[in-house]
């Protein structure tokens, strides 16, 4: 039986792993795939101390190299279920059952779907959730970015260097993103804002050709020719594997010590209810979760 199983090998999970090794715990990080969640989809990160500007993929590589050098063991496995058997937690993957004294859920989040007709049909045929991955396919073309948060504006700025024109379609008249990003986007000649507007439908034959837009104030609908639709309307947590208290969206509720409603089960990073989903908070969550797990195992709570 392991001391600690960490489900998820993103920034929160690897940070938790590094701390666990340093506490002398027998720990294993289970990671679903080589693509480590939200961070790997982020083109550029400028608010992680020590790295003035780095791509999400590169920062993740640095985390992995650090964790490996520290002695963190990882295994590729998709976890189906985490069950609370009291002193013995049971982690079921598609191949086996693993037992541990404590578990940290660091499964992260994924892009929220817009939920409009055409979104699924045109996935990878003009609809994308990743400018880093798919932006180059739209070189010299016109795209829309849906959303007004940090992700939408960051990725619109990246796209503006690749495509001929970026339209940011936002449902309100004011952006949610931080001021620095707002100012940068306003300075770009090939970024144009379409305010108070929602995307009602994505249309085309084989590939995206048009979107149907609705002005939420006038209720007027229009069709607009476009080559690509990049969607950044928030994140959805991946928390279906564990039965602990969650908010109405599915983010796991925790204490400041990362404790969930089940003793010995902790949550860290984008999958937990918090006020700030950033890399810097994810790595902090991971460290705190491990210290809490250690104290739980040692009976020091
Ligand atoms: P977000 O901050 O929740 O913003 C989502 C945006 O999408 C909002 O502007 C929202 O509009 C809009 N939206 C939501 N549902 C919509 C719908 N059905 N139709 C149209 N628009 C819709 O999400 P995010 O930008 O993905 O960011 C998620 C978290 O990651 C945030 O905490 C963010 O700060 C963080 N993040 C950090 C970095 C970084 O540290 N470098 C980069 C990117 C993101 P309203 O404003 O009207 O609600």
Automatic annotation (TrEMBL):
Keywords from the UniProt entry: Disulfide bond, FAD, Flavoprotein, Oxidoreductase, Redox-active center
Matching InterPro entries: FAD/NAD-bd_sf (IPR036188), FAD/NAD-binding_dom (IPR023753), Ferredoxin-NADP_redctase_2 (IPR050097), Pyr_nucl-diS_OxRdtase_2_AS (IPR008255), Thioredox_Rdtase (IPR005982)
Lineage top rank: taxon: Archaea
PROSITE patterns: PYRIDINE_REDOX_2
GO cellular component assignments: cytoplasm
GO biological process, one term: removal of superoxide radicals
GO molecular function: thioredoxin-disulfide reductase (NADPH) activity
Residue ranges of every copy of the FAD/NAD(P)-binding domain listed in the record: 2-286
SUPFAM superfamilies referenced in this protein's UniProt entry, alphabetically: FAD/NAD(P)-binding domain
NCBIfam families: TRX_reduct
Name this protein carries in UniProt: Thioredoxin-disulfide reductase
């Amino acid at each position: 039986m392991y001391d600690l199983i960490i489900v998820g090998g993103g920034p929160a999970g690897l940070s938790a792993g590094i701390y666990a090794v340093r506490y002398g715990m027998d720990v294993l990080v289970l990671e679903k795939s080589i693509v480590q969640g939200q961070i790997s989809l982020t083109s550029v990160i400028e608010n992680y101390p020590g790295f003035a500007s780095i791509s999400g993929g590169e920062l993740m590589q640095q985390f992995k190299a650090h964790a490996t050098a520290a002695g963190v063991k990882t295994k590729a496995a998709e976890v189906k279920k985490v069950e609370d058997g009291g002193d013995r937690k049971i982690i079921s993957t598609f191949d086996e059952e693993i037992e541990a004294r404590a578990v940290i859920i660091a499964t992260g989040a994924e892009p929220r779907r817009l939920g409009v007709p055409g979104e699924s049909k045109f996935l990878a045929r003009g609809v994308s959730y990743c400018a880093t991955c798919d932006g180059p396919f739209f070189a010299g073309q016109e795209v829309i970015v849906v959303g007004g948060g940090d992700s939408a504006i960051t990725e619109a700025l990246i796209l503006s260097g690749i495509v001929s024109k970026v339209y940011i379609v936002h449902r309100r008249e004011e952006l949610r993103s931080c001021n620095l990003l707002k100012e940068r986007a306003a300075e770009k000649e090939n970024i144009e804002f379409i305010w108070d507007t929602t995307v009602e439908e994505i249309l085309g034959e084989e590939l995206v050709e048009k979107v149907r837009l609705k002005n939420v104030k006038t209720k007027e609908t229009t069709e607009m020719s476009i080559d690509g639709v990049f969607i950044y309307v928030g994140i959805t947590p991946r928390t279906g594997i564990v039965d602990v208290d969650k908010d109405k969206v599915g983010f796991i509720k925790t204490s400041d010590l990362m404790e969930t409603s089940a003793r010995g089960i902790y949550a860290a990073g984008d999958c937990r209810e918090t006020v700030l989903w950033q890399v810097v908070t994810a790595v902090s969550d991971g460290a705190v979760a491990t210290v809490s797990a250690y104290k739980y195992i040692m009976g020091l709570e």
